[in-house]
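pls design
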């Protein structure tokens, strides 16, 4: 299973590093078929929040097939104005079996018209903006994550870790996901 995490300038660091840690730990503990990698617009370093510099593994032009796409949040306002990125997201959707977002990554999916009619969530601070900008979405508050069809959206920052553990549990079982959380010394807020 190829897990591509899309990152961009001013992405929230834990939004991508948290899910990356969950999936790479799951692989280390026995989910051998997981292949997790970072994808960005170009080969240039991504400057995440706080000046954290990251080199992605692939660009939107040269990545392998993506089975699970994770779109992270952060300062997303420039990113949702890039037709090339929105077009790329729309092109991945039919191929991927699952698509997830952390925090304001939901805005990118919504702008790419992938979430129409779905129940979604985002960071508590951005709930009102997501609802007003995309009135065809059912935006809910006070949930760490929510799944609607093949889309799973989560609240902000650490909620992406909880969502990723949930996705691991969907593929490998609850006990395995708990083992991953324990290995990470993370208290999983499993909402189910």
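designed seq:
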């Amino acid at each position: 299973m190829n897990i591509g995490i899309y990152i961009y300038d001013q992405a929230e660091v834990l939004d991508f590093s948290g899910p990356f840690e969950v999936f790479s730990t799951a692989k280390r503990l026995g989910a051998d078929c997981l292949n997790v990698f970072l994808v960005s617009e170009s080969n240039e370093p991504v400057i995440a929040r706080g000046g954290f510099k990251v080199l992605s593994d692939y660009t939107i032009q040269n990545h392998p097939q993506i089975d699970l796409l994770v779109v992270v949040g952060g300062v997303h306002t420039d990113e949702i104005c890039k037709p090339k990125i929105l077009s790329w997201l729309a092109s991945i959707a039919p191929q991927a079996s699952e698509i997830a977002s952390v925090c304001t990554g939901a805005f990118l999916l919504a702008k790419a018209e992938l979430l129409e009619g779905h129940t979604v969530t985002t960071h508590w601070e951005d709930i009102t903006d997501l609802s007003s900008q995309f009135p065809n979405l059912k935006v809910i508050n006070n949930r760490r994550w929510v799944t609607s069809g093949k889309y799973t959206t989560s609240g902000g920052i650490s909620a992406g870790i909880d969502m990723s553990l949930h996705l691991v549990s969907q593929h490998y079982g609850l006990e395995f996901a708990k083992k991953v959380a324990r290995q990470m010394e993370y208290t999983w807020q499993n909402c189910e």
